[in-house]
Structure formats: C-alpha cells, structure tokens
C-alpha cells in the first residue's frame, strides 16, 4: 500500500499544470520570440503553435503511460518501467538537481526583478541575489510545514495570474488606436527579415511552456489518478495554448512588434500602464509577481519530492532522504537537498549575469531542450505499446507521439541555429550529469549486492 495520501483533486492538478507553465516566461520571453522572428506576428503565432505541440501532444502521449503507472518518480519512473532503472536514475538525477532547480532559479530571479520594479528602486546584483534566495526559502518552508497552504497558494495564483494576461488579450482584440511612439531613450529595433533563423525562437518559447511534465511526479498523491491525471494532462495544455495565443496577439495589437522588440522585457509594463494608468499598473504588477511566484511554487511542490522518489527506489543511497515524515507526508531531507540545488543554480546565474557569460540566454534554456529530448524516448515507448496493441487509441498512441517527436526535433534544430557551440557544450554537460546519476545507481547496486551476499 502506498505511503502517500491522495490529496490533490482534478481542479488542483489542472491548476498545477497551468500554474507551473503560465506565469513568468510569457512576460519576459514575448520580446525574444518577436526578435527571432524579425517582428513577424504570423511567424510568432506559428512558433507558439509549434512550441505548444511539445506540451499538447507530449502530454497526451504521456497520459497513456500515466494510466499504466501511478508510483512515485514521474518521468524517471516511466524510464524504469519501460526502459531500464539505470537510465531512469540518470534522468531522475538530471531532473532533480539540474533541470528543475535551474528553471526555479530563473523564475525566482524574475520574481525578484519585478519586486524591485514595484518598489521603484534599482537594486544591485547582490541585493537581487538575496531577494531571490529569500523567495525560494519562503516557498520551501510553506510547502514543507503548511502543505495545504501550498496547494491553496497554487490554486489562487493560477487563477489570479490569468487576470493581466486575459485583460491584455481581450482589450488587444478590440484595440483600434495607433501604436505608441517608442521612447526616445530606447534603441529602435525595426521589423526585418530573418530567414530561417526564426526557428531559434523555439528556444526562449520552450521556457514559456516548460514545467508541465512534473505533475506526473504527483501521481501517487492525486485523487483517482487513472482519470484525473489524464484529464489534467489534456485540459491543462489546451488552456495554456489558448491563453498564450490571445495574449501574444493582444500585445502586438496594442504596442506593435517594433515597440515590443525595442523595449524588451518592459513591454508588458508599458502595455498595462498605457491601458490602465500607472496606479492600476502597480496593482497588476503585484499580480504578475504572484503569478511568477506561483510558477516557482508549483515546481517546488513537485521538485521537493523528487530526491525522495529517487532514494525510495534505491537509485541513490540515502535512507534519510528516502524516509517520509508522517506528519508532513514528505521527506524533509529531500526538500532541503532540492532547495540546496536551487540555491546553487541561483548562484551560478548570479555569476553568469555579473560576468556576462550568456548574452541573450540563461542557464535554464539548454536543460529545457535536453529534457524535451529525453521525453522523445518515452514517446517511442508509447508508439511501441500501440504497435503491440496494448494502446488501442490511434490518436493518443500513434498520432500524438509522432507530432510530439516532430515538434521536439524542431526545437532542437532551433537551439542549434541560435548558438551551436554553446548549446553543444551545454548538452554535453547535461549528459555528464546524467552519467553521475547512472554512476550513483551502479555504485548503490554494487553496495546492495555486497550487503546481501
């Protein structure tokens, strides 16, 4: 019998997906998408549709695996069940200590930037570092010691965060005024042709769609997971896609592509202030901060459980991490080890920013692409199950995985077009961390064999 208590209903599971994905990337990546497409609205919408294929068809494909397994571990659990435990340990280690922590580091840093914008003070990098770490510690404490509050915070932030997005989207559809003049202190970026390099827009867009897959880590804690997890993996991505399309179109209608590319990350604030004025703009900025923190919170809810899932399967040797605290229904050692990984990547991002190591990218983008490539193997597993007749539905078992693989391949090509040398080196680093997880698994197995003998 499972040690986990089934806590989350369908609504919470859907809001977990929506809450994790929507909230940060769409605010500070919209200008990057337009920059890579040269300001073309049509190409920007096409990029949104291609990018959404990874999450929409990927989630539908993985729902077939979710029907067949509800044990802890999520994606790494699927690897163990259908491929090999050693590879599962490798992927699990990468996700638990590289992929998710790097994303949370960037999302928390964005929340910190908007916080200082709200205060109206230009903060030093060191002040931003302190604020970011403070946010992550606060969220972990909430999700360890007040578990229900963490779930309620996720529901609340998932609903609230849609307000500015939908306001801009709806008003933008009916907007008839001329585009605003670009501020004189801002360098004007005109609409221009970019050739095939528009595919590189998939890289920043991938961040805006990322995080959806971690909800499968919560399968043992979802009420009636056989139905609710599958429904959530289908409904959640559809809600996200529609929201992004409407928001992106609305922003372009209000500000125009050149204004958005020229003002960069500040474009959203320009749009909000232009529509509602500075006072209401401040209130909506608070909502944006809650929205971004909701992303980090959703990722923490799943992430703090990942080391425990690895240890409980004996993929890493740590009885302390494997043990669930009966009072909090999770492993506090697992939560703190995950927090340490997040703080580590926050420090790396701080150093990269201070010394300008990455000009137009951040530490999370390559792990996001690498994680999507790891999912391709699971899509192939779904195809094999369909071929064997174990999956009867042609859409979920054949069409969806084919489309998900195609979209992921396009994402990978786009990342190489953006920065071939950096992406190649970073991919090798991700592979190295996977090897570390593989090594720990092999070492632990050898240790277990010696003890048993």
UniProtKB/TrEMBL annotation:
Gene3D superfamilies per UniProt: Amino acid/polyamine transporter I
The keyword Transmembrane helix appears for this protein: yes
GO cellular component: membrane
Main location: membrane
Molecular-function GO terms, alphabetical: L-amino acid transmembrane transporter activity
Keywords: Membrane, Transmembrane, Transmembrane helix
Membrane topology, from the record: Multi-pass membrane protein
Localisation per UniProt entry: Membrane
UniProt feature coiled coil, ranges: none
Membrane-spanning segments: 7-28, 40-65, 86-109, 129-146, 158-176, 196-220, 232-251, 283-307, 328-348, 368-386, 393-413, 419-441
InterPro entries in the record: AA/rel_permease1, AminoAcid_Transporter
Pfam family, one: AA_permease_2
Protein name stated in the entry: Amino acid/polyamine/organocation transporter, APC superfamily
Species whose genome carries this gene: Granulicatella balaenopterae
């Amino acid at each position: 019998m499972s040690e986990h208590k089934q806590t989350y209903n369908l609504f919470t599971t859907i809001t977990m997906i929506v809450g994790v994905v929507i909230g940060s990337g769409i605010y500070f990546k919209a200008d990057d998408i337009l920059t890579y497409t040269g300001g073309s609205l049509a190409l920007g919408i096409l990029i949104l549709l291609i990018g959404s294929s990874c999450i929409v068809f990927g989630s539908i494909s993985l729902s077939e695996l979710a029907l067949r397994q509800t044990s802890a571990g999520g994606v790494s659990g699927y690897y163990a069940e259908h491929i090999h435990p050693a590879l599962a340990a490798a992927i699990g280690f990468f996700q638990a200590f590289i992929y998710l922590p790097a994303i949370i580091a960037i999302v928390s840093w964005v929340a910190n930037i908007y916080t200082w914008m709200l205060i109206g003070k230009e903060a030093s990098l060191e002040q931003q570092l302190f604020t970011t770490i403070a946010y992550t510690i606060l969220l972990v404490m909430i999700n360890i010691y007040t578990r229900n509050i963490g779930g309620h915070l996720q529901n609340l932030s998932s609903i609230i965060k849609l307000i500015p997005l939908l306001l801009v989207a709806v008003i933008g559809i009916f907007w008839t005024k001329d585009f605003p003049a670009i501020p004189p202190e801002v360098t004007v970026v005109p609409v221009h042709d970019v050739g095939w390099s528009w595919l590189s827009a998939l890289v920043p867009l991938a961040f805006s769609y990322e995080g959806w897959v971690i909800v499968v880590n919560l399968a043992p804690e979802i009420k009636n997971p056989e139905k609710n997890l599958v429904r959530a993996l289908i409904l959640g991505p559809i809600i996200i896609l529609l929201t992004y399309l409407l928001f992106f179109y609305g922003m372009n209608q209000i500000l125009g592509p050149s204004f958005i590319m020229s003002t960069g990350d500040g474009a959203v604030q320009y749009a909000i202030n232009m529509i509602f004025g500075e006072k209401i703009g401040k209130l909506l900025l608070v909502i944006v901060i809650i929205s971004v923190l909701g992303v980090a919170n959703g990722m923490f809810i799943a992430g703090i459980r990942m080391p425990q899932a690895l240890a409980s399967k004996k993929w890493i040797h740590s009885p302390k991490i494997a043990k669930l605290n009966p009072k909090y229904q999770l492993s506090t050692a697992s939560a703190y080890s995950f927090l340490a990984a997040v703080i580590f990547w926050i420090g790396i991002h701080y150093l990269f920013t201070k010394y300008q190591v990455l000009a137009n990218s951040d530490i999370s983008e390559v792990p996001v692409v690498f994680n999507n490539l790891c999912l391709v193997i699971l899509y192939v597993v779904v195809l094999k199950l369909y071929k064997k007749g174990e999956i009867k539905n042609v859409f979920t078992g054949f069409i969806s995985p084919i489309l998900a693989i195609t979209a992921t391949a396009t994402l990978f090509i786009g990342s190489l077009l953006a920065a071939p040398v950096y992406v190649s080196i970073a991919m090798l680093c991700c592979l190295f961390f996977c090897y570390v997880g593989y090594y720990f698994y092999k070492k632990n197995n050898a240790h277990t064999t010696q003890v048993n003998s």
